[in-house]
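re the bet — no i am not wrong, look at it urself. input seq straight from the record:
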Amino acid sequence: QVQVVESGGGLVQTGGSLRLSCTVSGLAFNVYHMGWFRQAPGKEREQISCVTWNDLQAYYADSVKGRFTISQDNAKNTLYLQMNSLKSDDTARYSCRVSGAYCSAAYYWGQGTQVTVSS
């Protein structure tokens, strides 16, 4: 059974940092492409970052480019999202996904972790 579990969210002040983690079990993590998306209340879900299984390609939405960094540790079956210079617009529920192709539809996804940025 595949499980995708995000953690690391919380309340942070504007300008602060958080690191989100996404641990995957039940599949061969190092052959799948991974990504992060977020959804704020009343807004559409937004793909913010994705990465190929071999780290050769990474994508960032314009809204997070230069502030967020995606990375993965295959030995720990874990995907990360380092978020710096957080803004109130970053407040959302962040979820990770496991995909069969780069930045494509998810095979599996988690329940998400809430990030709230206060001014």
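see?? Residues 57 and 113 are 25 Å apart (CA to CA). told u. also The first strand starts at residue 3 and ends at 7. so pay up
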